[in-house]
Amino acid sequence: MSDDSTPPSTEVPSGIDTTVPQSARIWNYWLGGKDNYPVDQQAGDAYAAVYPAIVDMARATRYFLARGVRHLAGEVGIRQFLDVGTGLPTVDNTHEVAQRVAPDSRIVYVDHDPLVLAHARALLNSTPQGRTDYIDADLREPEKILDAASATLDFDQPIALMLMGILGHLTDFDEAVTVVHRLIDGLPPGSYFMHYDSTATDDSFLEAQQGYDDTGAIPYVLRTPEELSRLYEGLEMVEPGLVSCSLWRPDPSPFGPPEPVDAYCGVARKL
């Protein structure tokens, strides 16, 4: 969560529609960020009124990102990350976690949201040894993403592809599977796929999501863990496999094991 006490700007960047809620801004609101508007706050509050666990889930997915990147940069030795569907900067963004472990890490962020683009400069800070870049592209353009990323990343060396909470926006699941596999096919052997998505594992979650979709915002489809497992076909899963985000290699806690959340994640290696 952001601990930046700077008051939010009242200036709306060009191309931003503040009459309809937007998922990246709502997640920013749930995580305590400033880059959201009254329409997002209202939608976020309405969502949480139906499904109060959403705030804990949002935090759990963020913590998974940090643990997953830390594992890949530290234990595995990955030095390149392709983060597609970046969302709005908060704290412990991919480059911050990776370069804290390995200062020479290179990170390419990809998003197609005007507000994310407006804040991309916050994602481009890098250690002198490493590098960060930002690509304005849609998830449905895997070839464009891979081609543009090659300006920063070395495709002769392993790359970690990250799709964090974005595939639900592809309402056709066959299309989502195809996009994932096309991106993975463009990576060298020894690369990794890191992913999470919210899941259809709680009736109140489904109700809250439907209420959000009914606002006219871009819909997000909740899928079962069994469906999400198709994304990993042909890859070697890293233990503990496809699990609730809070249960993926949790950090030690004096309060005991964490409670599962309605978002599943996994990390897998391309052979």
TrEMBL record:
Transmembrane listed as a keyword: no
Alphabetical list of SUPFAM superfamilies matching this protein: S-adenosyl-L-methionine-dependent methyltransferases
GO annotation terms (biological process): methylation
InterPro entries: SAM-dependent_MTases_sf (IPR029063), SAM_dep_MeTrfase_SAV2177_type (IPR006764)
Keyword Transferase: yes
GO molecular function: methyltransferase activity
Keywords recorded for this protein, A-Z: Methyltransferase, Transferase
Pfam families (UniProt xref): Methyltransf_19 (PF04672)
Name of the featured protein: S-adenosyl methyltransferase
Lineage of the species this protein comes from: Bacteria, Bacillati, Actinomycetota, Actinomycetes, Streptosporangiales
